[in-house]
Amino acid sequence: MNATGCIKYAVAVAIAACSACAGSSYAPSSVASGGAVTDPAAAAQSKYFDYIDNDYGTYASIFNYPTGDKQIGTIKNVGGQACTNVLYGYGKKIIWIVAGPKQISEYQVPSNLLKTLSVSTGNSPSSCAMNASGDLAVGLLEGPLKGSIVIFKGAKGSGTYIKTPLLQEIFDGYDDKGNLFFDGLASKGPFQLDEIPKGSTTVQTIVTSNTIAFPGSVQWDGTYLTVEDQRASKIYRYSINGTKATLKGTITLKGAGNCTQTWIATGIVFCADSGNDDGEVFKYPQGGSPVAILSGNFDTPLGTVAAEK
Fold first, then answer.
1. Which of 84, 44, 76, 50 is CA-nearest to residue 64?
2. Model-level pTM?
3. Using an 8 Å Cβ cutoff, are 208 and 245 in contact?
């Protein structure tokens, strides 16, 4: 299996089976170079833009749900996970998408490239999250520093690296108090949830009151910290007390093949479904069957995010 295929398999299906790829990195064709809206009329009448990010180094498909469910544009040479400048809901005018073997790029919606940040050579970014102060946290999936978190203060500069116990960091998200939670693969099992408390560089492990089969998205939903289980197609809602996460509710995403990343917006949750090779929209926190299937071009969806003009 080549490096690109190995990393894709690692994120979307079962990273544990990809240990032979340690130290490798995917190789996108080039650094992100902007995108194009192919349906300007649809973009003009839209308040919201939604993104399904495909395999590393390919493209992000742009949508304007709920105005419509058909693709209206593309951002080239990106792929993997995405985030924006809010904890949940619709971001304010910008999104971030993994954009190269060591890069992550910021876009003004719907597709205008603003800037690119880099991690150390040989390390592959996986997740990203922003706090209320505008700091950007980027997790590292592969490379010499794999499992680490990089904090870009004010979303600029070269970043501060924080080593974690994880073998591979996969998803991260801030809560409303500025604490950073993240999950991934640990040496003793297929799932581990950790936290870097606000103002600290010390990592502590969070024990969940239920079992999670495989790491998924970590996001604050306005009331609870949520962790998605890719394998179970469920989103778990937790209250956090010290190093314990107590289950408060479960959202089932019926019909999902593998929501590699989810993004909780307002009353809905988007799913980048690498199992069904599409983008799906579910009610939140009700879950159940999709209320919409996004129609467009997909190539192993790995990430999703939403923002407004």
1. 50
2. 0.91
3. yes
Q: CB burial class (10 A; 0-12, 13-18, 19+) of residue 52?
A: buried
Q: Is 118 strand, coil or helix?
A: strand
Q: How many domains does the chain have?
A: 1
| Mean pLDDT, residues 117-144 | 96
What CATH number does residue 75 fall under?
2.120.10.30
Contact 271, 259 (CB under 8 A): yes
> Which of the two residues, 1 and 64, has the higher pLDDT score?
64
Q: Worst-scoring range by mean pLDDT, 189-193, 246-250, 273-277, 293-297?
A: 189-193
**11 close to 126: Cβ distance less than 8 angstroms:** yes
Measured between alpha carbons, how far is 232 from 212 in angstroms, rounded to an integer? 8
Instruction: Identify the DSSP state of 27.
Output: -
Range of the domain at 11: 3-308
